[in-house]
Specification:
alpha/beta; about 45% helix; 15 strands; 6-stranded mixed β-sheet
């Protein structure tokens, strides 16, 4: 069995760790949890680091718990945030929790009979009947305001937003998260909390509560916040987050995100976001260094993460879709794409609408009259005869050809290409 802490160390996945953690894990299987904020019905790749840590934890023979914050999600975490979050109702939170569990199941074993199978817990279950009076009496008196104010998550929020201040609701968040740790320690024998570096203050409030209430030692381990080599924010694109939900970020777009990371980032990310062993990763980095132009590392990274999140079939579709845009794909390859992938591949491409009743129509009229792919029939004729025009990935040289119903893809689209890079989608209405 792999050594959990050593595994994370060589992968660059440890930021802070409480004293004695490694020795405690070495005694035998233990339980740990990661808290996940259910403010949305999908995880994004910013969540992946702590999920991967939980996955390694389970593979090393330990029992992982995923805690979805049904209660804390109603309050909002001030850590590293510039504004308070919108508070969600119970129905929305319940829906989000179900969606998140389905996504976590791609990484963690929740279903087997193994003693270390993963479990999903929701802090709403133990917080919903805990009255404010009892909570402040039992828990509030144990942690001083001075202690809470010393946490970076609180100090940074107040420094950034001194004019608006910080509500009592968000100030108490660390007490609630600390109580989660205490509850799981006491009732489920969960001795360690894992998370991102921004959670260190909240997590150690939990270890302190456990020490004061139970007189016992609890443990914590956090991973570094992931950055990009160019200083940009990891996981953010012009369109926002890269989601695990294929309805929000298509498998093709997901694959492309990893395929397009820089060499430096690929060498870092392949250790963090894949389960490949050290020997395989080091060999891949060495091969990539010899010929960076082949992008060996990015291709391997994109393959591993896409298969893990979306499965083998969606990975193969993403590769095929990439070849349609950048490689020597055939008309058959193009027609094999589902509509969502087709639209994802050609996102941002200029489009024109043509009424179905106009078909059949001569190709020159189609390109220069019914649409403005070309400014004139003369220019269209010249490029077609010069072998510089493709229709649905097939070269067309016959200027007398008609565009017919048979040319329509998915009953809606015709793809035209002039030159090597200029694509246009014609929507057949």
């Amino acid at each position: 069995m792999k050594n959990f802490v050593e595994e994370l160390k060589w992968r660059g996945m440890i930021k802070d760790i409480t004293p004695g953690t490694e020795e405690e894990i070495a005694k035998g299987p233990m339980s740990a949890y990661v808290g996940i904020d259910p403010t949305g019905d999908s995880l994004h790749i910013g969540h992946l680091v702590s999920i991967m840590i939980l996955k390694h934890f389970q593979e090393c023979g330990n029992k992982p718990f995923a805690l979805v914050g049904g209660a804390t999600g109603m309050i909002g975490d001030p850590s590293m945030k510039s504004q308070e979050r919108n508070l969600l109702d119970e129905k929305t939170l319940a829906h989000n929790v179900e969606c998140i569990k389905a996504q976590l199941s791609r990484f963690l074993d929740f279903e087997s009979d193994a003693p270390n199978k993963a479990e999903l817990v929701n802090n709403y279950d133990w917080m919903k009947d805990y009255t404010f009076i009892n909570f402040t009496r039992d828990i509030g008196k144990l942690i001083t305001v001075n202690y809470m104010m010393s946490k970076d998550s609180v100090k940074k929020r107040l420094e950034r937003n001194s004019s608006e201040g910080m509500s009592f609701t968000e100030f108490t968040y660390q007490l609630l998260q600390g109580y989660d740790f205490l509850y799981l320690f006491e009732h489920r024998n969960v001795k360690m909390q894992l998370g991102g570096a921004d959670q260190w203050g909240n997590i150690t409030t939990g270890t302190e509560l456990i020490r004061r209430v139970l007189g016992k030692e609890a443990y914590a381990l956090t991973c570094p916040l992931i950055t990009k080599a160019d200083g940009g924010k990891f996981g953010k694109t012009e369109k926002g987050n890269i989601w695990l939900d294929p309805e929000r970020t298509s498998p093709y777009q997901f694959y492309q995100f990893w395929l397009n990371v820089s060499d430096d980032d690929a060498a870092k990310y392949i250790k963090i976001f894949t389960m490949l062993d050290r020997e395989t990763i080091e060999a891949a980095i060495a091969e990539h260094t010899e010929d960076p132009g082949r992008r060996t590392l990015q291709k391997l990274l994109a393959k591993e993460v896409t298969i893990m999140v979306h499965g083998e079939k969606e990975y193969e579709n993403a590769v095929k879709a990439s070849q349609v845009l950048f490689g020597k794909a055939t008309a058959e390859d193009l027609r094999s794409l589902d509509e969502k992938t087709f639209l994802a591949v050609f996102d941002g491409v200029p489009t024109f609408d043509v009424e179905r009743g106009k078909l059949p129509v001569g190709i020159l009229d189609f390109l220069a009259v019914e649409t403005q792919v070309f400014p004139s029939k003369g220019e269209a004729r010249k490029m077609i005869q010069g072998n510089g025009f493709s229709l649905n990935k097939e070269k067309v040289t016959d200027i007398a050809r008609d565009i017919t119903e048979a040319d329509i893809i998915d009953g809606k689209y015709i793809l035209v290409q002039k030159g090597k890079k200029d694509y246009y989608i014609i929507n057949i209405k």
